[in-house]
Each structure stands twice: as structure tokens, then as C-alpha cells.
Amino acid sequence: MGVVSSMSTAISGLESNGQALGVITDNIVNANTTGFKASRSEFQNILAETSGSGIQIGRGATLAGVTNILSQGSITHTDRPTDLAISGNGFFILKGDATGQTYTRDGSFRFDKDGWLVNLNGYRVQAYEATPTGAISGKLTDIRIPYNTIAAKPSERVQLHVNLDARVPVGAPIDLAKPEETSQFNTGIQLFDSVGNARPITMYYNKTAENTWEFYAMTDGSNLTDGVPGEPSVVAQGTLAFDQYGKLESVSQSIVNSNFLGAVADQNIEFEFGDPTDQLGTGEKGTTQYGSKSAMFRNVQDGWASGTLSDTAIDADGVVQGIYSNGQNRTLGQLGVARFEATERLAKVGDNQFRESVLSGQPLVGRPNTNGRGIVMTKSLEQSNVDLAHEFVQMIKAQRGFQASAKGVTTANEMLDEVVNLKSR
Q1: How far is CA 177 from CA 173, 190, 219, 232, 233, in A?
Q2: Which of 300, 306, 354, 350 lies closest to 327 in space, CA to CA?
Q3: Which residues sit opposite 254 in a β-bridge?
Q4: DSSP calls for 216-256
Q5: How far apart are CA 120 and CA 90, in angstroms?
Q6: Looking at the DSSP assignment, which residues form a beta bridge with residue 126?
Q7: How many Cα atoms occupy the beta-carbon half-sphere of 309 within 13 Å?
Q8: In this predicted model, what pLDDT tens digit does every residue of 160-219 receive, in sequence order?
Q9: Which of 257, 260, 221, 213 is CA-nearest to residue 239?
Q10: How many other C-beta atoms lie within 10 A of the C-beta of residue 219?
């Protein structure tokens, strides 16, 4: 009977609109959930009934599926260096003991007590492993911050870029017992020995002939194995020659005594003053002799003291850097980012996470900012992409649909009552 079937049709409207309201409500309550992605109800009509005359009568609606809306949420700034957001396509990769590998847009990460980078549930963030030399390997694994001390490195190369005043007259040789009084220019630098001790060195310069200067690298005798405390000792010495244009022409040098106290003997140290013309250089990119006041404008050496981890930083390519107390940086890994061919078909598993499904396809894992994957933004979090105004409109539509379907049920019921009452008339 058509009246009975119309009641079933109206009931399907109650069910489908009620389910739609559930999806809408879930979106609304997660409007402030970090990295949350809204969902949308997808309805289909139920197969129509064909009567003998070829007339088709529909039998209502059903919820065919719920589609994930994976549009970009707004990105807000935070003050935590481990808060991360992806601008563009892709997901952070997580791994838990019970859940296996999951994917998320929620970058609320932190380091746990053992140094592992984890999310709020303790699942470990996956990253490409770094080799001891800082090269990124192809192995995807848990990323951990090492709380060990990095070893000291002795200074081997010292770059010194100095201008020596061409107007200075030729002077007497430097008295090595009184270098402060007999040199025409001096400046201080610092070197590191094999155990990371900082050794103060003073560079003394003296003009010995036109366009020719001698230099001495000296330190207090207390810094050397066979030095006399309180007396200056020569570490290295040499000669700088310039042409008539003030360009560096040649450099000669020799190590006199680099046996620092308590360190490896005969430490190899090379002083680099620029690009002399006798080495096919320009003679201008470093030490020069121009008619201006003597001054040092570059002092770079390649040694450092031992250091402990003091901070971490993550760049737009997802490279995790350890920042150490001695000023050195170490690459610790690079975050992996996964993208999918059918992103909307990922399965939600709760806790702001997704899992791959048969319909989504397998993850395409790679480095951030490559092959369509987004960049990583530090001190940032992606907010929910829920549009509350849109959801309230959808809620009203679901409410009206539910009310209309309910009216269909009551009307069909009244018609059935009429049928029942026919017998009593």
C-alpha cells in the first residue's frame, strides 16, 4: 500500500537528516581542534520502485558516505619551537606501538624525557636519519635529540683579513721580549687546542721594508708545554709582501711552537691572510696594504670547544638542527611528509590522526617542499578548517529536513488511521 511505503520513505528522511546533524555537530564542536578537518555528509536516493505501468516511485534517501574536507586551515603563530604546521599538501608521519603508522596535520609536538620527538599521545614523529657527518640518509625512523657532549676540535685554519697602513714608516725588528712596545700594529685572536681549551693569541705586525711586513703569533708562556709563565712565546711567525698597489703578493710562515699545555703536541695551524697574487689570486680578498689606518676586519678559525645541546631548530625543509653551547650546529634529521593520491579517502582514527585506506592508496613519503609536498612552518599550528557560518546553515537545513520528514510520518499515520476507521463507519 502506498500509504505504508510513504511512511517508510519519511522515516528514511528522519534517519538521513539525523545522521547529517551528527556530522555537522562533530564539525562544530571541533572548530577549535588543532589540525581538524571537517567532514561532509553525502546522500543518495534509495532505488525507486517501478510499478507495472512504468511509473517510478522513490523510496527515500540514505547516507552514502562522509567525505573529509582537507582544505588548508589557517596557520597561527606560537612561541614553541616544536609546534609545526604544513603549508600545502601532506601529513606528518607518526608511529605508535599499538596503532602502527598514522598521519596527522596536528603538529603539536614535543620532546619527551628520553629525547624522542612525540605528539600529545606519545606517538613518535618519523624523520629521515642523519649520519654522523650531518648528511641526510634515506632511512625513515624515530627522531631523537642526543643529549651527549660533542667533542672539541682543534684550530687548524685561521683566516685573518687585515689592512696594514701603507703610510707607516719602516721600523726596527720586533723585540720578542717586548712585542707590545716594539710592534707597529697588534690584535688579539683565539685558538682552540685538541681538548677544547681556548688559547689567547696576539698577532704582532711590523714593517721591515717597503711593502714588506713581518708578523708574529704569540701567547703567554703558561699556555705552552715548555713556555715560561709571564713571558711571551712565539707560536708562529712569517712575512707578508705587497705590490705597489697594496695587493697581497705572497705569504711565508712557519710554526715555531704549538705544543699547548695538556694537549696534543705540534698542533698544525695555518694562518690564511687572503689570496696572494703568487697563488693566482687577486691580492685584494683578504689582507691588504692601503693608506688607511691598520685594522683587522675578519677573524675566522675552524676550531671549537666541547659543547652540550642547548636548543633545537627546524627549518622550512623540515631539517632538525641541534644548537650546542659552543656555537656549533648539528643536523639531527629531516622530517618525513606523506601525501596521498586520494587524500579525501583517508580514514579518521581519532586523536587528530588518519590512516591509509584501500581507497586512499599508499602514502608517497618524501622530504618537505619536494614533489608537491608542503613546507614546514616552525612555531606555528594549523587550525581547524571548519567554517562555523557554513555549518550553522547546514544545521538549519538538516533541522528543516528532519521536521519535514517528521511531518511526512505524522501525515502517513493519520491516513492509516483513516483507513482503520473505514470499517467502523
Answers
A1: 12, 21, 12, 7, 9
A2: 306
A3: 237
A4: EEEEEGGGBTT--TTSEEEEEEEEEEE-TTS-EEEEEEEE-
A5: 20
A6: 142
A7: 15
A8: 999 999 999 998 889 999 999 999 999 999 999 999 999 999 999 999 999 999 999 999
A9: 213
A10: 20
Grid coordinates of 168: 707607516
For the chain, the three-class secondary structure string (H helix, E strand, C coil) is: CHHHHHHHHHHHHHHHHHHHHHHHHHHHHCCCCCCCCCEEEEEEECCCEECCCCCEECCCEEEEEEEECCCCCCEEECCCCCEEEEECCCEEEEEECCCEEEEECCEECEECCCCEEECCCCCEEEEEEECCCCCEEEEEEECECCCCCECCECCCEEEEEEECCCCCCCCCCCCCCCHHHHCCEEEEEEEECCCCCEEEEEEEEEEEECCEEEEEEEEEHHHECCCCCCCEEEEEEEEEEECCCCCEEEEEEEECCCCECCCCCCCCCEEECCCCHHHCCCCCCCCECCCCCCEEEEEEECCECCECEEEEEECCCCEEEEEECCCCEEEEEEECEEECCCHHHCEEEECCEEECCCCCCCCEEECCCCCCCCEEEECEEECCCCCHHHHHHHHHHHHHHHHHHHHHHHHHHHHHHHHHHCCCC
Chain-centroid distance of CA 357 in Å reads 28
Between the two ends of the chain, the Cα-to-Cα distance in Å is 21
| The three cell numbers locating residue 182 | 716594539
Cell numbers representing residue 34 in the block: 588543532
Q: To 10 degrees, the CA torsion angle through 320, 321, 322, 324?
A: -170
Residue 386: which region, alpha, beta or left (left: phi > 0; alpha: psi -120 to 50)? beta
Q: Which residue type does 226 have? A: D
pTM: 0.75
Cell for 388?
562555523
In this structure, the number of other CB atoms found within 10 A of the CB of residue 220 comes to 17
Residue in the structure block whose three cell numbers are 714608516? 169
Please name the residue that has the C-alpha cell 709582501. Answer: 241
Residue 214 and residue 174 in contact, taking contact as beta carbons nearer than 8 Å: yes
Q: Report residue 390 CA to chain centroid gap.
A: 34
Per-residue pLDDT band for 47 (boundaries 50, 70, 90) equals: confident
Q: What is the pLDDT of residues 322-357, one digit of tens each?
A: 999 998 899 999 999 999 999 989 999 989 999 999
